[in-house]
Amino acid sequence: MRIALAMLLYLNALYAVEGKEVYEKKCASCHQGYIPMSKLKENFQDYNNTLLKLVAPTLNQLSYRLKKSIGDPKGDNEIHRMEVAAFITEYVLHPDRQKSLCLDEVMQSFQTMPSLEGKVSEEELEAVSTYIYDFDEKVVEEHSVAYEGFEKALQKAKNEHKIIMLKVMTKDCYFCRKMEREVMVENEVVEMLEKDFIPVAIDISTTELPLGLNTELTPSFIFIDENAKVLLNIPGAWGKKDFLDILREAKMKQK
Ligand code: HEC
Questions:
Q1: What's the gap in Å between 255 CA and the centre of ligand 1?
Q2: Is the C-beta atom of 200 inside 6 A of ligand 1?
Q3: One digit per residue, pLDDT tens: the chain, 255 residues?
Q4: Measured in angstroms, how far is the CA atom of residue 128 from the centroid of ligand 1?
Q5: Is 97 in the pocket of ligand 1 (CB under 6 A)?
Q6: Domains, the chain
Q7: Is the separation of the CB atoms in 157 and 190 below 8 Å?
């Protein structure tokens, strides 16, 4: 009995449709993969799509926009997944610009999507919907800076003469997530942080700040030197250019 069950699971895994594969085979010819938010903004706002010449929203645009606009993103995750999957399935079979959730400035660059009715199975649609749903979180995880615990970071700061960048956040803070998604994945930011800083993230809804620090504004960025002295304390969410300036200012204050 157990062997039969194991066999069944094995076969299931063998035949399971991979969302990524479906995407690459049936969607990627039009919908490109990951392109950083800043590049996309530049392309659509300043260049009227002449820079990237996209023919459809990118995978990260789809993931971000659909999850944000359909149902209640903060509500029950299983229900939200089903709602997003239902939208994708309906759209792929019966595309309709009136129902599109893309920004108008983006949509005006695109033709209407051709229907894939008869070209994609229900199972494939289910798999590709899951892939699109999870993509946006995965990108942030893969491209963003790595965060350390504070004690370890302080030791490392001493050894390597680096500055701790303490990000004060909560899990539900919209602007924290926005900055994580749009700024912390930018190459220049990641490179500068990796070279001279040790990033630490503390969720103040669950954890106290170290060194008796106290702030209720999220996000806040507190820069601390190797002697545990606060160099700068900057509340607020920032764009890439301003954030790079803040990092430079912290460096100037370091002895
Ligand atoms: C031949 C090109 C092409 C292919 C192949 C294609 N799409 Fe599209 N798709 C588009 C274009 C162009 C748009 C934007 C215009 C529109 O909404 O009709 C779009 C829009 C969408 C939207 C709506 C986005 C929104 O903001 O509302 C979804 C969802 C979508 N595509 C999913 C898919 C999935 C999933 C696949 C693969 C199974 C796929 N598409 C394959 C061209 C394509």
A1: 53
A2: no
A3: 666 666 666 655 555 679 999 999 999 999 999 998 888 989 999 999 999 999 999 999 999 999 999 999 888 999 999 999 999 999 999 999 888 888 888 888 999 999 999 999 999 999 999 999 999 888 888 887 888 899 999 999 999 999 999 999 998 899 998 899 889 999 999 999 999 999 999 999 999 999 999 998 999 999 999 999 999 999 999 999 999 999 999 999 997
A4: 12
A5: yes
A6: 16-143 (1.10.760.10), 150-253 (3.40.30.10)
A7: no
Report the 10 Å Cβ neighbour count for 208.
9
- How far, in Å, is the centroid of ligand 1 from the Cα of 113? 5
Q: Positive or negative CA dihedral for 134, 140, 143, 148?
A: negative
Find out whether 202 and 168 touch, Cβ atoms under 8 Å. yes
Kindly report the backbone phi and psi dihedral angles of residue 146, in degrees, each rounded to the nearest multiple of 5, phi listed first: -95, 135
Assign 181 to helix, strand or coil.
Answer: helix
Q: Which residue lies with its CA nearest to atom 14 of ligand 1?
A: 56
Mutation test residue for ligand 1: of 30, 52, 90, the one with most atoms within 8 Å of CB: 30
Please name the residues in contact with 178: beta carbons below 8 A apart, sequence gap of 6 or more: 237
pTM given for the model: 0.76
Question: What residue has token string 């899990």?
Answer: 171
Q: What is the dihedral of CA 84, 135, 171, 78, to 10 degrees?
A: 30
Side chain identity, residue 1 = M
Q: Which token pair is 86?
A: 């239902």
